Here is the input.
Amino acid sequence: MSSRRMTTIAGSLVTASFSAVLILSATASADDQGPGSSKGGKVVDEAPDGVKLTTLLPEQISVDNKSEKTDITATVKNEGTKDSGKIQLLVVGFDGLTVNSVQGCSSIAESDLPEGSNSGFACPIDNLAAGKSKSYAVDASFDLDKTGKICLPVQTGDGKKTYWQQGPVPFGTTNPSPNAPATPLLLGTDNKPVGPGGDQLPKTGVARDLLPAGAAGAALMAAGVAGLWWSTRRPRQEI
Here is the structure.
C-alpha cells in the first residue's frame, strides 16, 4: 500500500493499482453515435503542465431487446497544449453493463478489476498529442432487468496515477420500447429493474441509487460524478 498513492474523490478513495498490460497496436474507430459527453467525469491526480485529459461517452446507446447487445464509443482526448506521454484508458463495466471486448485493447484479469466491477479492458497509448483524441469500439451487453454503469479512468502508463475518471456513470431508459427491436438508453440516467410482474419495463429514477456495499466504495453523486475504489490486490501482469 505504501507504494500506491491514495486519492480522495467525492468522499471516496481511488487507488490506481493497475500494472502495464499487453499492448496491442490496433486502435479502433467506432461508428459515430452522436454527440459525446464527459458527464460524470472529474480530474483525480494533477496531470503534467500543458496536458489536459478527458473522456467522452455517447449521450445515447441502443440495446437490442433480444440479444441485449450494444455498441459504445469510448473516446479519450488531450485538450492541452503538450503531448501526454504514455497513458492508458480503462473501460470498466458495472452491474447490468458488461464490457465484452474493446477492439485494440486487452482484458483486465478478474483479480485486478476494481471492486464491484464485472469486466474491464485496458487500452495503452504510447502518446496522445496535444489537441488529439482516440476512439475505441466497445462491444457490451446490457441486462435491462438491472441498472448498468460504465467507468472510463485515464491513467499513467504504469497505473500509478489517475488523471481523469468518468463514472461509474449510468445508462438508463426514459423511453421504453416494448414493441420495438431495441431500447434507447441515455447517459446519466438511472435504469430501474423490471418489476415483479415481469411486464413492466425499466423506467428512469429521479434519485441516484447507492452502489451495493463493498462495490466501488461510493454512491453516485448528484452531478453524476462517482468515486471508484480500485482493488488493492497486487495486479497480475498479463503475458
About this structure: Confidence is low (pLDDT under 50) at residues 1-32, 194-239.
